[in-house]
């Protein structure tokens, strides 16, 4: 009899599952064996298992029957402009009714300031906006709204950390736009655990997205990021929402970039440019002059390239300084460019172009705090270093675009025609690219423009 009891207990005992990816195990472990996340494995009751359970068919509700795709209208997914051109560019034309948008970014980068501006613009157009914050009090938000000029009668503020109370505010206000700052600060009393935990974030996001779909209410969720820059919480959060936007920028500079990492209603290769000011955040429709120096006369060691940020071409000035080294190991200092890439370019210059660099300190930097990660900037870096060595400046109206191979050849890059068109639009009369053939020939062409 005792043996039967033990057998029954073993069969009904629950196991353990990962809150991030759903990986299951029969015993508790500190690290998930599938997604390698720490502290996400928790015990699940035996009743929570769904394997082998029969699901009975249920008749769809009235008005929700399956219909031929040719009878459906696409007007319900039309974009509605927010009044901020750079944000609309990233979203694909505006916010879609019923869409769930996830806004991520490091603390202090300006997410709340930008979204408060969006809320004010929607309210100014006659819409009702509910801004629910779990991080700031309504008084703090009011002070920032006064500073940025975001005071409107149809902009409603709520400082709440309970999901049920936020849902109650939605019923009372009936907004046209809901902003939740942030999703990690809300908690539901129906789920165990504190706010910000995987189970709580999943429940809060699921509930708000259900409200968005049922009412056609666009919802903007602000998400914290981890040390590596990814959205904090379960990866399921990014799968649940329709749009994932990342707001980034260096705190030492006023420039901010908004990138679309996922967009079910538009492209994912657009980028929006903003600038932090004393009155808030302002869009920069034409950032072409932000990454160029203002020297009246050409200076040696500088060269302009045309970088692609999403589908937007931006001119960026690269600066180089070469000085005699007083140490056995010369310094290689970079800012805004990849140090390993620069080391490779310097090796090519010494071997293929005859530049003497093994006993020189080399400093390479970009203007304006922008970071160049694409190989299209190789040629501009190389020409800037050669210009610094010879102390012969390159002309202002010259730009260089191309990837540099270890053999000293110049390879074509993606978006060459668009880069050339942008360079021509901005007044660059000479563009040195892959047609030059080799680094030696490109240097001759650059110096020949003087």
Automatic annotation (TrEMBL):
Q: Alphabetically, which GO biological process terms does the record hold?
A: recombinational repair
Residue spans making up a coiled coil are none
Organism domain of life:
Bacteria
Named from the GO MF annotations, one term is: hydrolase activity
Q: Which UniProt keywords apply?
A: ATP-binding, DNA damage, DNA repair, DNA-binding, Hydrolase, Metal-binding, Nucleotide-binding, Stress response, Zinc, Zinc-finger
Q: Quote a single Gene Ontology cellular component term.
A: cytosol
Binding positions for ATP?
Answer: 105-112
Q: Residue ranges of region Lon-protease-like?
A: 361-450
User: PROSITE patterns attached here?
Assistant: RECA_2
> What residues does the RecA family profile domain cover?
76-225
Q: Where is this motif: RadA KNRFG motif?
A: 262-266
Relate the protein's function as given in its record: Plays a role in repairing double-strand DNA breaks, probably involving stabilizing or processing branched DNA or blocked replication forks. DNA-dependent ATPase involved in processing of recombination intermediates, plays a role in repairing DNA breaks. Stimulates the branch migration of RecA-mediated strand transfer reactions, allowing the 3' invading strand to extend heteroduplex DNA faster. Binds ssDNA in the presence of ADP but not other nucleotides, has ATPase activity that is stimulated by ssDNA and various branched DNA structures, but inhibited by SSB. Does not have RecA's homology-searching function.
Q: Which HAMAP family match?
A: RadA_bact
UniProt family annotation: Belongs to the RecA family. RadA subfamily.
Note what the entry says on domains: The middle region has homology to RecA with ATPase motifs including the RadA KNRFG motif, while the C-terminus is homologous to Lon protease.
Q: What is the official name of this protein in its record? A: DNA repair protein RadA
Q: Which gene encodes it?
A: radA
């Amino acid at each position: 009899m005792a043996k039967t009891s033990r057998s029954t207990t073993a069969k009904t005992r629950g196991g353990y599952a990962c809150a991030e990816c759903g990986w299951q195990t029969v015993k508790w472990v500190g690290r998930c064996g599938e997604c390698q996340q720490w502290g996400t494995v928790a015990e699940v009751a035996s009743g929570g298992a769904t394997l082998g359970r029969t699901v009975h068919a249920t008749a769809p509700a009235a008005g929700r029957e399956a219909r031929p795709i040719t009878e459906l209208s696409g007007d319900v997914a039309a974009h509605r402009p927010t009044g901020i051109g750079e944000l609309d560019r990233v979203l694909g034309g505006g916010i879609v009714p019923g869409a769930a948008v996830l806004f991520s970014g490091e603390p202090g980068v300006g997410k709340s300031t930008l979204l408060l501006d969006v809320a004010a613009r929607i309210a100014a157009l006659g819409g009702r906006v509910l801004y629910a914050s779990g991080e700031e009090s309504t008084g703090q938000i009011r002070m920032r709204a006064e500073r940025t000029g975001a005071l409107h009668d149809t902009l409603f503020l709520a400082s709440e950390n309970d999901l049920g109370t936020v849902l109650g505010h939605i019923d009372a206000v009936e907004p046209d736009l809901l902003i939740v700052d942030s999703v990690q600060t809300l908690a539901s009393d129906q789920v165990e655990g504190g706010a910000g935990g995987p189970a709580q974030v999943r429940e809060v996001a699921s509930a708000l997205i259900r409200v968005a779909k049922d009412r056609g209410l666009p919802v903007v969720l602000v998400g914290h990021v981890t040390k590596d820059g990814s959205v904090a919480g379960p990866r399921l959060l990014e799968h649940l929402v329709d749009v994932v936007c990342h707001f980034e920028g260096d705190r030492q500079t006023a420039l901010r970039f908004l990138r679309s990492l996922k967009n079910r209603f538009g492209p994912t290769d657009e980028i929006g440019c903003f600038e932090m000011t004393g009155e808030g955040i302002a869009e920069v429709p034409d950032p072409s002059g932000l990454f160029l120096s203002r020297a009246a006369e050409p200076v040696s060691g500088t060269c302009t390239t045309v970088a692609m940020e999403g589908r937007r071409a931006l001119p960026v000035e690269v600066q180089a300084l070469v000085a005699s080294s007083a140490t056995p190991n010369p310094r290689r200092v970079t800012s805004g460019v990849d140090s390993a890439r620069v080391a490779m370019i310097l090796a090519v210059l010494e071997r293929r172009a005859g530049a003497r660099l093994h006993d020189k300190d080399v400093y390479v930097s970009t203007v304006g705090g922008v970071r160049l990660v694409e190989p299209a900037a190789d040629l501009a870096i190389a020409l800037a270093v050669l210009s610094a060595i010879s102390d012969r400046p390159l002309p202002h109206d010259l730009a260089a675009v191309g990837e540099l191979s270890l053999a000293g050849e110049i390879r074509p890059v993606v978006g060459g025609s668009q880069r050339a068109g942008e360079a021509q639009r901005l007044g660059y009369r000479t563009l040195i690219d892959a047609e030059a053939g080799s680094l030696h020939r490109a240097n001759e062409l650059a110096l020949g423009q003087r």
